[in-house]
Specification:
The protein is mainly α. 73% of the residues lie in helices and 0% in strands.
């Protein structure tokens, strides 16, 4: 039981700090600064930060981001729950514009070619990207 509580606390901590870590990485990249990711065991913050950066800022699908990380570090296992949980906060805060854009995307598709998941993820990722790159403290904007 103690172990489960420790794991849960670690996920909450990662979820809380993830926006700041991704925002800091995005800021360094935007300024053309070289950044290296150092994975110790590949089970914690670094793979989670790299995964989230690639998906939210880099515009890669979650699957492509995971494939890229696993090609470089096969034993990596990011905290998926922290990544998913961190997405929920801005998605809930900015639900109306996300829904509106998702509707626009679905209406632009030819009849019979709907892709609800893609139509939702694209505007959701765009909102997260704009929140993380537009403010000084991404953690304050996403984790309330």
């Amino acid at each position: 039981m103690k172990q489960r509580g420790a794991v849960c606390a670690r996920l909450i901590d990662q979820r809380h700090h993830l926006p700041h870590a991704v925002g800091a990485l995005a800021d360094r990249q935007a300024r053309g600064q070289r950044t290296d990711a150092h994975f110790t065991a590949g089970l914690g913050r670094t793979p989670l930060t790299v995964l989230s950066y690639l998906a939210w800022i880099g515009g890669r699908s979650l699957q492509k981001a995971i494939q890229l990380i696993l090609r470089r570090r096969p034993a990596t296992l990011p905290a998926w729950e922290a990544h998913r949980g961190c997405r929920e906060n801005p998605a809930n805060r900015h639900r109306c514009p996300i829904e509106q854009r998702a509707h626009e995307l679905s209406q632009a598709r030819p009849p019979g070619q709907s892709d609800q998941e893609a139509d939702w993820l694209q505007p959701q990722t765009g909102v997260i990207r704009s929140v993380l790159t537009a403010i000084d403290s991404p953690a304050d904007a996403i984790v309330g």
